[in-house]
Design goal:
This protein is α/β, with parallel strands linked by helices and 342 residues long. The protein is built from 12 helices and 9 strands. This is TRAP-type C4-dicarboxylate transport system substrate-binding protein.
Length: 342
């Protein structure tokens, strides 16, 4: 009888230890809007999750929610701030007017490649230029897409005049203003909605990086491409501050080690590679690609692009924000980042 009792007590003890061990592991809900089958999900977000789990010895587990399943693209930052998601990744520009200084990095010419853009945006944050815009979450790392070009179904766009009357999906209000000045009709929508909108004839084209054209399968619908950089889209991976504060010091150290420039650069490399792959697929499909060299000094494109830059910086000044100061810091970071990467 005593032997049976002892065995039962031991079994219960082991079960309790096992349960305590299980409870010690913290699960972080990580939400983003890229498709689950995309390389961005697999090579960036999943890679980050696996690295965090390994570095924490299993004490931190990351549950990924791709494709806007936990929160829609335009609500992901708010979801991270409110704790609906523990970690969220989204485009800052989807929250119109909320990150005005951050969006300086989106201006034409600031981020010539995804690799440079990630370095520029993370540098601006590390130097303290953007602190007030992220007081409600704990940013982990920031990055950008490559330059956003023009992609249309069948209209050849060689000059701004060719945009007259075209309905072009714009990623942010900043890009929408430039398109309007060129005679196009900007249409706002998150990237996951573009394919259906173009398929139904709601829009005639998009402004997107090559990565986005490939990720969201737009090479199936567009055949005309004009490489003139309207913008580079800023993105962030950020964490709910209360979630971070609840972690043990050891777990916090793991998150800290998976933040900052090193992971920004990882993201830049992923997006840079995907840009090259997206363009290559368009070439293989026989699409028409027009490349505008030095667009900021090009006789046709210089003025509308410069007008867009000036209009945005003036708008920041009218709001009492140091837009030109941040813009100059971004250009200095661009020069330093590109020099390091050569």
């Amino acid at each position: 009888m005593n032997t049976k009792v002892t065995a039962c007590l031991l079994a219960a003890s082991f079960a309790g230890l096992s349960a305590a061990s299980t409870q010690a592991a913290t699960t972080l809900r990580f939400a983003h809007f890229f498709p689950a089958a995309s390389a961005v999900h697999e090579d960036l977000y999943q890679a980050w999750a696996e690295s965090v789990e390994e570095a924490s010895g299993g004490e931190l587990r990351v549950q990924l929610f791709p494709s806007g399943t936990l929160a829609k693209a335009e609500s992901l930052y708010e979801a991270a701030a409110n704790g609906i998601a523990d970690v969220g990744s989204t485009v800052q520009g989807y929250s119109a007017g909320r990150f005005p200084l951050t969006q300086v990095v989106e201006l034409p010419g600031v981020a010539p490649t995804a690799e440079a853009g990630a370095c520029v945006l993370q540098t601006l944050y590390d130097e303290g230029h953007l602190d007030e815009e992220y007081a409600d979450t704990r940013p982990l790392f920031m990055f950008t897409t490559g330059p956003g070009f023009l992609h249309t179904q069948d209209t050849v766009v060689e000059t701004p005049e060719d945009l007259q009357g075209l309905r072009i999906r714009r990623p942010t209000a900043l890009v929408g203003d430039m398109l309007t000045d060129m005679g196009a009709t900007p249409v706002g929508m998150p990237a996951p909605d573009i394919y259906t909108a173009m398929q139904r004839g709601v829009i005639d084209g998009v402004s997107l990086p090559w990565e986005g054209v490939n990720t969201f399968r737009l090479n199936e619908l567009t055949t005309q491409h004009t490489q003139v950089p309207f913008y580079s889209l800023g993105l962030i991976v950020t964490m709910n501050q209360r979630t971070y504060d609840r972690l043990s010091p050891e777990q916090q150290a793991v998150i800290d080690d998976h933040s900052g420039m090193a992971w920004a650069e990882n993201a830049g490399e992923v997006f840079g590679r995907l840009d090259r792959e997206g363009k290559e697929k368009a070439i293989e499909a026989g699409h028409n690609i027009i490349e505008i060299d030095e667009p900021l000094s090009h006789p046709d494109w210089q003025q509308p692009l410069q007008n867009g830059i000036e209009q945005y910086l003036t708008g920041l000044e009218e709001r009492g924000l140091p837009g030109r100061e941040v813009y100059q810091a971004a250009l200095a970071a661009r020069d330093a980042c590109t020099a390091e990467q050569e």
